[in-house]
Design a protein that fits this description.
Oligomer: single chain
CATH superfamily: Lipoprotein localisation LolA/LolB/LppX
Distance between the termini: 50 Å
CATH class: Mainly Beta
Shape: globular
Mean pLDDT: 89
Largest sheet: 14 strands, mixed
């Protein structure tokens, strides 16, 4: 079992009350010798709503919630595209895990993963998880590593017992009562000879009263048309 120390740990330390957070996100992805980049301003509220204002590759705004109700607004065309998929829920977002105190398992328990083993090596806590039956066709297990009660590495293993992706969390910073990784690198193994590397950095992080972006109050214009 995971130790009591880890179980009670929350990224938002005792006494802290989360209301909202904003940050700038930049993503660089390398695949097949090509580099792509995207950037957005993220805004996340305590009720699970997220407003992402994308600057690159083009200007559009994405509104999402805990139910996976997603709306993508194009201000140039004044159109909105809607999707409804719980797999897109903000509950599975990195921000949600950290402000909600789910860093000890990164939401694995809630998603149906079963804890198989816990190991401790110096400052590291290494947990192994088996995937739920609903994911058995593509995933078999997950390994999560925490250092000083903060996630530093997560590894997904496919149904053929091969590593399908590795994620590294680093450059932790503290904002009021929140510890948050300002850099995340994901290596996805698409095949035996093909992989994709994505590095995400977060800057200008502001919490609660300091988070004063106008996008927290953003609403899609009533005259926006449904995208075809």
């Amino acid at each position: 079992m995971i130790s009591a120390t880890v179980l009670v740990f929350s990224a938002l330390k005792s006494g802290g009350k989360f209301e909202k957070i904003q940050m700038d996100m930049n993503v660089r992805t390398a695949h097949s010798g090509k580099m792509t980049q995207s950037s957005a301003q993220l805004h996340y509220l305590a009720d699970g709503r997220m407003i992402a204002n994308f600057i690159l590759p083009s200007g559009y705004t994405v509104i999402n919630n805990t139910k996976g109700e997603v709306k993508v607004y194009d201000p140039v065309k004044n159109t909105v595209r809607q999707m409804n998929d719980y797999n897109l829920s903000t509950e599975s977002s990195l921000i949600s895990f950290f402000v909600g105190g789910q860093v000890y398992d990164m939401g694995l328990g809630k998603m149906g993963f079963v804890l198989l083993k816990t190991e401790r090596k110096d400052k590291l806590t290494i947990t192994s998880w088996s995937a739920p039956e609903s994911m058995a066709s593509s995933l078999s297990a997950v390994k999560l590593v925490l250092e000083d009660n903060k996630p530093i590495y997560i590894e997904y293993i496919d149904n053929k017992k091969k590593v399908s992706s590795k994620t590294y969390f680093y450059k932790y910073e503290t904002y009021e009562n929140l510890r948050f990784p300002t850099a995340v690198t994901v290596i996805s193994y698409l095949s035996a000879k093909d992989s994709m590397i994505s590095k995400t950095t977060f800057t200008n992080v502001k919490l609660n009263a300091k988070a004063d972006s106008k996008y927290f109050n953003f609403t899609i214009p009533a005259n926006a048309k449904l995208a075809k």
